[in-house]
Structure of DNA-3-methyladenine glycosylase II:
Amino acid sequence: MPTTLSCTLALPATFRPGDILAFHRRDAHEVAESAGAASLRKGLVWNGLAACLALRFEPGRAVAELAIDGAAAAECSARFQAMVRRMLGLTQDIESFERQHRAHPQAGALIARQAGLRVAVAATPFEALSWAVTGQQISLGAAVALRRKLIVAAGVRHTCGLMCYPDAGRVAALTVAALRAEGFSAAKANTLHTLAHLVADGALPLDAWLHTLAVDDIRNQLLSVRGVGPWTVDYTLLRGFGWMDGSLHGDAAVRRALQALLGAPDRLGEHDARSWLAGFSPWRALIAAHLWAADSALPAHTGSGRRAP
């Protein structure tokens, strides 16, 4: 029997729906997400079932519904509300960040210009982790196309017509050969396949870590998987858990925007970027998000250095 969960969340006066919607508007093909001017529909897997999230922004509030192709337990309502809060960045203490750094001699004007910016978070940590692996060392356009192929290959479709971003079990069911056939490199296919099995089998308890945010455990266990490096871990912590203190100094777009902000004549290396970002702890990832937003306004870049935003 189909089930619908719903919740309504109050939004701060400075909330910027456009930042959230832009994150889900990456794929113009709208295979699994469709974002309007003030609304979003997203296909996802909920407790192994196809589901469709409908999110609508209204003055001062967000109204969310999850239509599940099957039955849902009563306790799912609280879990659904927590998911939506994370996705909207409502767990992020951006007010403290802006108070502390709005007078920063280099970044203050940028923060003021983008006041209220929050980091959109993926529906699940696995979605963030798999997207991070997909986006390693390739352009955003190539990563989005590869992501689309993964969604289609997994083959989960909601009754509304949208495909659903697969859970770890669905990705684990795909062979490395199948992932290679969709365009994943051998290294990425093996890494994604390994991670999916570890998550599905409980060896990487991503959903449990949502409640404990055991950053050191997450970092150490993910780094033990071949093909997962510091950037992938910090990106996953940011987009999957809403953790604001990852140092994304390895991100090419962050370094490019920082170079423009500082007016540096030469490209910045990772060491220089790490040193500059360190002054914003415990919000290093949040200032990186401000740099991402600034980079999107710069002239288009080509090449393989851009990472997944």
About this structure: Confidence is low (pLDDT under 50) at residues 301-306. The beta strands are 3-10, 33-35, 39-46, 49-58, 61-68. The domain at 3-91 is CATH 3.30.530.50 (Alpha-D-Glucose-1,6-Bisphosphate; Chain A, domain 4).
